[in-house]
Amino acid sequence: MNRESQAGQHVQGSVVALCGGVGGAKLALGLAHALPAERLTIVVNTGDDFSHFGLHVSPDIDTVLYTLSGRVNPETGWGRAGETWRFMEAVGELGGETWFSLGDSDLATHAVRTARLAAGESLTAITSDFAKALGIGPQVLPASDAPIATMVETAEGTLPFQRYFVGQKCAPAVKALRFAGAQAARPSAEVAAALSAPDLGVIILCPSNPYLSIDPILAIAGMRGLIEGAGAPVVAVSPLVGGRAVKGPLAKMMDELGHARSNASILAHYEGLIDLLLIDERDRADAGLDPRLRVAPTMMKSLEERIALARAVLEAAGSLRRKAEA
Ligand code: FO1
């Protein structure tokens, strides 16, 4: 089936991007610069969410909100720039848990979110209000309003995601991942509407960790069906460059899960779901392996590079016809 047409043109219509935290948020920012706000919806992983000191923490949602509003800490990629840590110092003084750091200003996000959830509001409504308050144009949506918790089965037992990721610095060998609650969860009405929009031009899988950040979204009952039924091309960006993860434990985790650290493994992981996998210029040699592999500048150190990758994704999608027309 040849869906090639109109090479060089940006995709038309609305755009939905699925993403996790730091790496995904960088492409989301590029897309936010490359598209009018009303054309872009960002669907964010909530498998990393957890309760800490009684507060509902949604790390990937906050990373996206802080990144899109220019507030993110540029050194860590999460949390706020110019943060202070008086709360954590006081927690330590009292002998409280200090393994997970909540900055003083970041704390406000968790406190307001927790209070509003306790009052019965949905995570979708709260996130949408936060986005507006922070001056963000594109729609930012949690993948679901129902709780989903990524559980990491390791050689040392099962760990809730943040205990594995931050508490143990990803050291235990990963045997499997589970997404507790995902089968009982459903995509929110807003996510379903974005994925069912008649003018949907492309669904983008950001270069987030496929196992930790994209899979918890795809595991939500009904999510894959919505994506497959959307009729729009699905374009993923590989999180690997030269067999290494740009950030985080992906490469180590691929070894532990028995997958080669390669773009072919990422393509195989998304088999049946994606039409294209954009791979970095440094992996140009891989491009001949499969017609679905296409080269793009995937490193995103500067804002310009984020926008350039966003444009490359939109152009690649523009070269594919909607599946209904193919
Ligand atoms: N990551 C860390 O490595 N250490 C932390 O103490 C930490 C605190 C934290 C607080 C709020 C927040 O939104 C994110 C935070 N992160 C921290 C990042 C987070 O654990 C991960 O980046 C994501 O969950 C993975 O995408």
How does the SSE layout of this entry go?
Elements: E1 14-19, H1 22-34, E2 40-44, E3 50-52, E4 55-57, H2 59-68, H3 86-93, H4 104-118, H5 123-133, E5 139-142, E6 149-154, E7 157-160, H6 161-167, E8 174-180, H7 189-196, E9 200-205, H8 210-218, H9 223-229, E10 234-237, E11 240-241, E12 244-245, H10 250-257, H11 263-269, E13 276-280, E14 293-296, H12 303-318
Parallel strand pairs: 1-2, 1-9, 2-5, 9-10, 10-13, 13-14
Antiparallel strand pairs: 3-4, 6-7, 6-8, 11-12
Helix pairs in contact: 1-2, 1-12, 4-5
The structure holds ligand FO1.
Mean pLDDT value: 94
Order of helices and strands: EHEEEHHHHEEEHEHEHHEEEHHEEH
Helix content: 25-40%
Strand segment count: 14
- Give the domain tally: 1
For the record, what is the CATH homologous superfamily label?
CofD-like domains
Gross morphology is globular
* Unreliable spans: 1-7
User: Looking across the biggest beta sheet, what order are the strands in?
Assistant: 5-2-1-9-10-13-14
Would you identify the CATH architecture?
3-Layer(aba) Sandwich
Beta-strand percent range: 15-25%
| CATH class descriptor name | Alpha Beta
User: Which ligands appear in the coordinates?
Assistant: ligand FO1
